[in-house]
Model the fold of this input.
Amino acid sequence: PALTGLRGLVQRNAPGCPLPIIDFAILNALTDFFSRSQAYRYTPAQITVVAGTGDYTPTLPDGMEIAWLLNAELDGMADSLSCVPPDEIPLAWSSDEGTPSLAVLVDSTKVGLRKIPSAAGTLDVSLALRPADDCTEYPSEFHTLYRAELAAGALARLYDMPNRQWSAPGSVASAAAKFERAILDAEYRADRGNSNAPTRTKLCLIGGR
Done:
């Protein structure tokens, strides 16, 4: 559904708040929710690896970007690649060619192989997504399960704004706690639904949003 589907829940509890501010708070809450829960698991189409090319842009749903690189396989071989943060890549490997052993999240739209592959092949990746700045919709299952909690996350942000008509410092903690419980529940559901999910040490968070 559209992100605006959460407006009514937020608006009735934040009287006087302009819609652009409400929409911004909703987007921030959703971004936080998906970044921290890793709940939106996504496997894009197989990527064709080209010799001499290290970075690749998987096809993603409209309005979404990559929050986490969960797993990567070269030429269909399990455990052929280790997923690491960019700052753990040996500097020379950013330009050296050879047989890749590392996969890295280059930015919110690209994944990379290090060393740069010297031969053609295929790359399969598993990702966790979050809304991009231009996001207008998110998956319906999360709206069904967590719409009240996502609205609470937006409200916690609005309540915490000082000296506004909708400010409510005394309500921040309860709204934030409701939102935090949803993040934990979504993370648990995602991990339980993927018995082959890699350990946390193989996750590569970028962006910090």
Residues 195-209 have pLDDT under 50 and may be disordered.
